[in-house]
Write a structure and sequence with these properties.
The structure is a single chain. The protein folds into three domains: about 1-180, P-loop containing nucleotide triphosphate hydrolases (Rossmann fold), CATH 3.40.50.300; about 190-225; about 245-395, no CATH class. It is globular, with a radius of gyration of 23 Å. With about 400 residues, it is an alpha/beta fold. It has 15 helices and six strands. The protein has a six-stranded mixed beta sheet with strand order 1-3-4-5-2-6, covered by helices on one side.
Length: about 400
């Protein structure tokens, strides 16, 4: 378990946000006007509910909404985004706000007990001690039961904010004690406008990034600003058109896993290097100074955490790949059914039209089922190479009659 670091927390500094949102910590919650109004009302009341559950599909911005709420609760101006308190939350270093995530498959009971201890501390000069728990759906039933009493009887100045994909992902005993905030995937136009205003993209590039990311703000930003990420995605979505045999399927599966592993390793190595440098500074060690034996355990702990992160990063990267492939077959199905809707992969319309001529609607649906099965498998300790090979074999087009 780890608190969000400056490197992993999105900054609220930068270009002017869209005019219809105004400034402040809620500026990036595009397409969530009802949610923003609900949270601002709670902040303005001066007596917010002690436990909240933020839900929404990936890309809805539930974690960003939780952070913005935490910042607003402790801001003298209810979330200005510019004061020291707001900047500290954005940097993940606010003394009264804990932004908690896990690099493991699930939260450990020890992690939850540590949170409960933190919740007992007074906010030390701030209005509220806020504990934001990302991926609360990763809590086991035993860990959730440990948390239950703390949520039932919280200290007077503590606010819990749990984040999960849906209410059903959290035990009913927790769900019933939280005020629910439901976020939705923002409209493509709102995401594109944010990218133009905040990141300085052209309207054309912003709309492309918003569309192919399926309105996921974080993914859209990465695709818009990272040429390598765009290249990886284009390689991924081209596979269904190229794979025509078992041997090609095996090669394609290996390539997808290799790309995910390389991306995870690079990210993990960069983060580990930063963490080791920070630890050296805190311990008064020079960059090239040999680590004394009595301090080696601390560095070993960082290396172990990096290894766990890399494993989860591979799973997350493959899941994003499967989401991109899912969009391909939804596009194919849209073409088969002549819906007339804009395709997610509109720039590949001609190639997808050729694929649609090979597949029947039933076969396209079968491919979507196979992709969903693969997404489940990679979260259940099935070796990634095995899961992806099984998937790619099922995606080989088999010409239908009629």
């Amino acid at each position: 378990m780890s608190a969000a670091s400056p490197a992993s927390t999105r900054s609220h500094q930068g270009p002017t946000p869209p005019a219809h949102l105004g400034g402040g910590v809620f500026a990036e919650l595009v397409g969530q006007e009802a949610v923003v109004a609900q949270l601002q009302s709670a902040v303005g009341s001066g007596a917010p509910t002690h436990a909240w559950l933020f839900t929404g599909p990936p890309g809805s911005g539930r974690s960003n909404a939780a952070r913005a709420f935490a910042a607003a609760l402790n801001c003298p101006e209810a979330g200005c985004g510019d004061c020291q308190s707001c900047r500290l939350v954005a940097a993940g270093s606010h003394p009264a706000v804990s932004l908690v995530s896990t690099e493991n498959v699930s939260y450990r009971i020890e992690d939850v007990r540590q949170l409960i201890t933190t919740a007992q501390d007074r906010p030390q000069g701030y209005r509220w001690r806020v504990i934001v728990v990302e991926d609360a759906d990763r809590m086991t039933e035993r860990a959730t039961n440990v948390l239950l009493k703390a949520i039932e009887e919280p200290p007077p100045q503590t606010v819990w904010v749990l984040c999960a994909p849906s209410p059903a992902d959290v035990l009913v005993t927790i769900r019933s004690r939280c005020r629910h905030v439901s976020l939705r995937i923002p409209p493509m136009e709102a995401v594109a406008e944010l990218l133009v205003q905040r990141d300085g993209l052209t309207a054309e590039h912003a709309r492309f990034a918003a569309r192919v990311s399926q309105n996921h703000i974080g993914v859209a930003r990465r695709l818009a600003t990272n040429a390598e990420a765009r290249s990886r995605r284009e390689e991924t979505v081209a596979l269904p058109v190229k794979v025509r045999s078992a041997s090609q399927a095996v090669v394609a599966a290996s390539k997808l896993v290799s790309m995910a592993q390389a991306e995870a390793a690079a990210d993990s190595e960069a983060r580990l290097s930063q963490e080791q440098a920070a630890l050296r500074r805190s311990l008064g060690l020079e960059p090239e100074e040999k680590v004394p034996p009595k301090l080696r355990a601390q560095f070993k702990r960082l290396e172990d955490e990096a290894g766990r992160r890399a494993k989860r990063a591979v799973t997350d990267s493959l899941d994003r790949t499967l989401i991109d492939l899912t969009a391909v077959y939804r596009d194919v199905l849209s073409l088969k059914l002549a819906t007339g809707a804009e395709l997610v992969n509109e720039h590949l319309r001609s190639e997808l039209t050729e694929l649609a001529e090979v597949l029947s609607p039933e076969q396209a649906l079968g491919c979507l089922d196979a992709l969903n099965t693969a997404r489940v498998r990679i979260t259940q300790n099935v070796p990634p190479a095995l899961a992806m090979e099984a998937l790619m074999m099922q995606l080989i087009p088999r010409r239908h009659r009629g």
